[in-house]
Structure formats: structure tokens, C-alpha cells
Specification:
The chain crosses the membrane at residues 45-64, 70-93, 148-165. The chain has helices at 2-7, 17-26, 37-62, 69-103, 124-165, and strands at residues 106-110, 117-121. With 166 residues, it is mainly alpha-helical.
Length: 166
């Protein structure tokens, strides 16, 4: 029964929420959020470490490492964490978009790509499938990203307290 509903679907294949979800899941960048916890933390640490190539010189220009090593490290770490924040924001927005598309009963799409927006109402079986994917596949990814944001904010708070002590 689902085959017939999907086969008469007017939405171009690349704009179907299930295909957008699959594309995001298989993409190089967005798949980071789906990795096991250790691999996910490694990716975030990798971004943080490499961002020191940009933030290290800025931090050293502000705080000489020989004279103020604590401020240098905290400044560089905070600036590098800003890059982690940007990565997390991009991941979160991408997954949130797909989750919203999966959870909505109507699919807005473009037929020719020139401002001819159309709307297709998902049949019940397609809507149910998409709801299940949004709830059990995408929502845990979003929760992981939210927890990571919380840890990042907590680390900024701890770094601020250490800064005051120094």
C-alpha cells in the first residue's frame, strides 16, 4: 500500500524528507552527529585542536605565552571553542530542518526551482513512517547536540571563573 502512495507523490525525489534525511545521514559533515560517542568526541576534539592554528596566534598577540601562560591558554581555548560552537550550530540547524520536514504532514517543494512552491500532503502511512524517523532517529541526534552545547557553555563558565582567579 505504501508503494502506491509514494509512486504518485509529486515531490521531486531530492526534496522528499526521507531522502533529505538519508542524504544528511550519509554526508561527510552531518554524519558526525550520528557517530558513536567516542568517534563524535574525537571529531569535536579534532576541530578544536585544528582551530588552534587560527586562534593560537591571536591569543599570543593578546597574551604573551611566556608572560601570561594562563590567559594565553584560556583565550586560545575560548576562541577555539567558538569554532566548536559554529560547528555544533551548523549540525543542529541541518538536523533540525530535516526533523521539521519529517514531522510535518505537508511537504513544501519546488517543481522547477523558480518560485513555484507547491504543497503535498503526506498519506497516513508516509506521515507515520516520517514521524517515527523524526522521533526515534533524529531527536536523539538533536539531544546529543544540545548536551554538547550545554557542556560547551559550562566550559566557558568554568574558564571564566579560572580567568577571574588568574
Amino acid at each position: 500500500m505504501m508503494e502506491s502512495s509514494v509512486s504518485i507523490c509529486p515531490v521531486p525525489s531530492e526534496q522528499l524528507p526521507i531522502n533529505e534525511y538519508q542524504e544528511l545521514r550519509e554526508s561527510w559533515f552531518f554524519s558526525w552527529a550520528t557517530l558513536d560517542w567516542v568517534s563524535y568526541v574525537r571529531k569535536m576534539a579534532w576541530v578544536w585542536g585544528w582551530s588552534w592554528l587560527l586562534t593560537g596566534p591571536v591569543a599570543s598577540a593578546s597574551f604573551a605565552p611566556q608572560k601570561a601562560p594562563g590567559q594565553f591558554i584560556l583565550c586560545g581555548a575560548a576562541l577555539s571553542s567558538f569554532f566548536i560552537g559554529l560547528v555544533l550550530l551548523q549540525l543542529y540547524l541541518g538536523w533540525m530542518y530535516v526533523r521539521d520536514r519529517l514531522a510535518c504532514v505537508n511537504v513544501i517543494y519546488e517543481e522547477s526551482g523558480w518560485y513555484d512552491g507547491q504543497c503535498w500532503t503526506k498519506p497516513p502511512e508516509v506521515f507515520t513512517r516520517d514521524q517515527l524517523i523524526a522521533t526515534y532517529e533524529v531527536q536523539p541526534i538533536l539531544q546529543r547536540l544540545q548536551r554538547t552545547f550545554a557542556i560547551l557553555v559550562l566550559s566557558f563558565g568554568i574558564g571564566s571563573l579560572i580567568w577571574i582567579i588568574l
